[in-house]
Amino acid sequence: MEFPALHQKVNDAPLVYFDHAATAQKPRKVIDAMTRYYEFDNANVHRGVHHLSQRATRAYEEARMKTVRFIGAEDPSEVIFTSGTTASINLVAQSWGSAHLQAGDEVLVTGLEHHANLVPWQMICTRTGAHLKIVPVNDLGEVSTESVAQMLHSKTRIFAFSWISNALGTINPAHEWVRLAHEKGITTLIDAAQVVAHQPIDVHNLGVDFLCFSAHKMMGPTGVGVLYGKKSILETLEPVVGGGDMIDEVTYEKSTWADLPYRLEAGTPNIAGVIGLSAAIDFLESIGWSNIERRESELLQYALLKLGSIPQIRFIGQPNNRAGVISFVVDGVHPYDLGTLLDEQGIALRTGHHCAQPLMHHFGISGTCRVSLALYNTLEEIDQLEKALIRALRLMGKVQAQ
Questions:
Q1: Do 9 and 38 lie in a common domain?
Q2: Domains in the chain: how many in total?
Q3: Measured between alpha carbons, how far is 316 from 167 in angstroms, rounded to an integer?
């Protein structure tokens, strides 16, 4: 059983899991790697000369080196382990933002953003007097490059955007947007949480200044994330969390900081989680990106066809370039009610605003039902979803009984 959690019944029906964008299921390889750490190597890192600490430290730092290679970084000091994408963006907003933003400056984000790439910028703008600007979304759920170019100007200090929308699956042209920003001397940050399990990332080729993602989106554990930053920029950041392992020397009067990456990794890290991230990288690479992309494209096209054949379903956002995420509503039916009826049939999908309330308001709705696909899904599961939806709509009186 490669994914143990998928081999169970929910409400007496085989589980069908379509909530990958919220968190991916974990392969046995990841679970076993974390269990081995707790069974045999459970010790703190960087501080001990004893054997267990040395083994734990070696596994932890090997995971950093593997992550460097995985995203195409150039130096291990460019990879900071955090608790997730949210923590990574907050670190940049608080540290970089405090040093570089002042009254009258602008921070640019898009109308597609997850709250994690919106709220931290609201907070730092309130503190510094900078202004948060939003690149608008069109009715297809897209942000045009023309609009981005128009809103990047001399007052813009940073452009922070999601590569793939978690709510709609829109794939943004990350390379082009980074290039446009850099032509005007503007710092860039990419939220890559929805990218990291679906296609390769090469930060050197992108040229991006900061990039963030979470392990649990890529079949690793929760509570672990990565902040990539260009070394020349990270070296200018002041720590926002103080404590153990991030210091060089401490006296009662003052403290000095350790070198990168440790100055930005205060306290005992999620050691088992980082080891799980390492195993998740191994798992994805063992399958191969071409196989993953081909499989997920097939699933997406089939799901769009099947869901599109149900007249009562109205898609929210139909971007021309999209990942394996489909958001939809049924007029007159609350997403929670539909989601509950699907759960009773063993179908797990996400309902609500998907931490993107402003985007939902743009479409005049409170939330959607969201199907998000992964390599472990099957065409047969999509057929089950179609049947479960029709059955649920029939119970709600939205489909004529036959």
A1: no
A2: 2
A3: 9
